[in-house]
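Write out the bound-state structure for iron/sulfur cluster.
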Amino acid sequence: MGRHRPTNVPRDRFDFEHRPATDQSFENALEKARSGDRLSVADGVELISTGTEFEGIDPRRKERVLEAADRRRAETVGEDVTFVANLNNNVTTACNTGCLFCNFKDPATGFEDDPPTGHTGGPTGDGSDHDGFTKTPTESREIVRDAVERGIYEVCSVSGLHPAFALDEAHRAILEAAAGGTATGTASGTDPDATGLNYKPPEQYRTDPGTYVEQIAAMNVGGVHVHSMTPEEAAHARRGTDWSYEAVYGRLADAGLDTVPGTAAEILVDEVREVICPAKIDTRGWLDAMAGAAAVGLETTATIMYGHVENEMHRVMHLERVRALQDRTGAITEFVPLSFVHHDTPLNDRGMAEAGATADEDELMIAVSRLFLDNVRNIQSSWVKYGDEQGLKMLSCGANDLMGTILSEEITKRAGGGFGEFRSVAEYVDLVTAIGRTPVERSTDYRERRAIDPDDPPFGPTLGPEADGTPLVDTPSVPAGD
Ligand code: SF4
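---
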C-alpha cells in the first residue's frame, strides 16, 4: 500500500512565490512527451500534477504519464536493470549545518574532547541514544581495503561537515590564521561563531578526521573507484578562501577522487532551500560546484530530494536546472530522485512536513524525470527510500537503475549477520528477474557492464578490482528443511 498524505494536495501549504499553475494543458504536454519533444517547465508541471485544474492526482492520467516514461526508458536503455557493487564509508556524522530534513548528523560539540558546559547530546557517553562517529584516514583505509578484497567496485563516502575538516594542510593554515589560532592549533579564539567559518582545530576533538585530501587518498586503495565530495563538502573544503571549485576538485582528483555524488541538491530553488537548509550553499553555489567538478573531468550524479515543503513547480524547476547543467557539462551519469523520509526529522518535529510524498507522487517524480531529462541516460530507483516493492515498481515508471549493494563497515566486520541495508548480488538477481528484466552489474560510470545469467549461480560481483564472483558476504547457513 502506498504512503498517504491526506492533506496538502496539491502542495500549497507554504506561501512561495513559485506556484504550480500553468497555461499549458495536460493533453498537450503528454503529446509532447510522447513525441520526444523537449519539455518546458509548464509541460513538466502538467505531467507531474496530472493537470493543475484537478484537485489531487488523476489516476488514469497518471498511468498515461507512466506509460510514456516506461516507453522512453525502453527506447533509451532497453530492458537492463543495473546496479553497482559498492561500499558506504561515511567518515563522520559531526555536523553543525542544521538542515531541517536531516536525521543523520550530530552536533559537532558532542565530538569534542571537552564538550562545552551544558552539552547534552552527541556520542559522548552521556546517555544519548545515537551512534555518532568519526573515522581517521587510517580507519577509512582499513574498511575500504577489506571491502575491496570482497569484490566491491566503488566506495561512496558522504559525511557531515565536521568543523575540523580542511581540504589540505594549506587550507588548514588559512583556517587557523582566520580563527586566530596557531599553526599547531590551540583552541583559543577558534569559536566557529566568532570566525563564521565553522572551523575548530582537530586537537579539540576526540577523533581527528584528517583532511579531505587525506581521507580521499586513504580510500583510494587497490584500484577501487572513489565516489565522494558532494558540492556541499566541496564548499566546506574551500571555506575562508577564494579558491575556485575547479581548483578544489582538481586537488581532490589528484588525491584519487574518481566521481562526485550530486547530493545536497535537495530542491534547486532558493525559496525552498531557505526553509529546509538555510545554512547550505544556494542553488548557484551547487551548480557552480558541479560545473567545477566537470571542468576537471570528474563525472557526477545529480539528485532531487522531494516530498517535504516544496510544490510541483519547484520540482520541475529543479529538473530544468539539472537539464541545463547537463547541456553545459555532459558530466551527469545518472539522476536520482530521493523521496523525503520524514520520521525523526526537525521538519516533522516542528509540524512543517507531517508526511513524505505519496506513492503516486513518487511514481510521477520518476516518470517526469525520465521524460524531462532528455539528456540524462540513467534514472535511479532508490530502494532504500521506496522499499523493495515500490522500488521495483519504479522500474516500470521510467527508472532503469537499482542503486548498489551498499555494503557497510558493520557488514564487513560482522559478515553473515545484521545486514542492515545491504543487498546481495543474489538478491538483485531474484528481484530483477522476477519482473522479467535483465540484472546487470555496472561500474559507477556505467561504462563497464556485466549481464548476469540467473541460471549460473553463485552470484558475486565481478567488476571490482579484486572481484572474482564470490558473494560479498557469507550467507548464513539455513538448516535443511527450513
Ligand atoms: S550538511 Fe548534510 S549532514 Fe549536515 S545537517 Fe545538512 S544534510 Fe545533514
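---
The longest strand covers residues 299-306.
Residues 77-123+134-451 form a domain with the TIM Barrel fold (CATH 3.20.20.70).
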